[in-house]
Input
Amino acid sequence: MVHILGGGVAGFMLAEALDKRGTAWHLYEKAAKAGTEASGKNAGIVRTHEVDPVLRHFTKQSLAYYRDNEPSFEQNGMLLKSWEIDYDTEEREERPFLHGRYSGKFYPDNGLVEPLRLMARLAGQPYRHGAMRYRFSAILQKGGNRLVAIDDAHAADRITIGEGDLVVVACGEGSIALSNTLARPLMLTRHERTLFEYENTVNYSGPVQWNEEASCYFRRLGKTLLSTAGEQIPVSEVRAEQGLEFHRERIATIEREFPFLSRDRLVAHRTCLRVMPLDNRPYCGYDSEIKNLVWFTGLGGRGISIAPALSAALADYLTGKSDGSALEPLSPERAD
Ligand SMILES: Cc1cc2nc3c(=O)[nH]c(=O)nc-3n(C[C@H](O)[C@H](O)[C@H](O)COP(=O)(O)OP(=O)(O)OC[C@H]3O[C@@H](n4cnc5c(N)ncnc54)[C@H](O)[C@@H]3O)c2cc1C
Output
């Protein structure tokens, strides 16, 4: 039995991958439904332009997953300004964008999912080998060098971990608290990202654009235009208040960069945290001390883009179908 903690894209993609392999699993989520944290609040951009070859490998495999499995996936391409060579060194066709103001490298196979539809599918589809449990806020109990039980923080409810069982922590930001209580610090940083939702007044149909000056992604979702922006700084250094006033400068930059947007078209905004290790690679593998503990966290700003392939590789490893060598660069041991 694999006990999966966390019902975001990481936890559910792993559940799906284990189910396909015929392995028993159980997923515990502290909220009342799936995807209430970053996995339901992101921009849903599926992109592969990674300069790190390990990450590029997994994002390309994940793109294939979305093409084959996710009804909300739309392949409408992605444009990066051509001087952003820190993202990728691949040769790509140059195209003009933003009404000809810029030209950029075009990634025709990249695309978009609708995060809430993705999470609804993952949580709602029929499974043969596992089940979910909501409103279960997991705390881990250790005995020697293994985990012995999972308790619910808010009710007298204990799951005993059987011999041969595994526990996978896929709790996003919540992984930090669990790693601290187990005295296995993972050195995850937290970044704040905000999604601005504008009414689409220009019939913009894509592709996705990454804009360096505004430090934001730009995509269409139905009749609205989404723009993701945020600081690449740890959240502890970000001011606490989350009102629109706090984002005044960023909104001004977006509106300067995209003149067809204006404040009166800004219909919503939402802020969420994303967590990542200092070297920007997710943690995906066994803990080096606690034998039945597996970390699957720190997916950073690419969780949607990378979770399917990481989950498949992790499921193969956990079920003995692979030796896990593909995941070695993502081993949590590097936090020791
Ligand atoms: C604004 C924004 C825009 C983004 N845009 C993109 C994008 O366009 N493309 C892309 O690829 N990525 C994007 N990302 C990143 C992506 O959203 C994340 O990497 C991904 O959602 C992380 O998924 P996760 O499952 O690891 O974490 P989460 O989504 O945080 O899920 C963790 C789950 O664990 C649960 N949990 C926590 N603690 C416990 C506990 N103790 N017991 C039980 N359950 C617990 C939480 O309730 C939560 O549901 C964006 C992120 C943000 C914030």
Remarks:
- The radius of gyration is 20 Å.
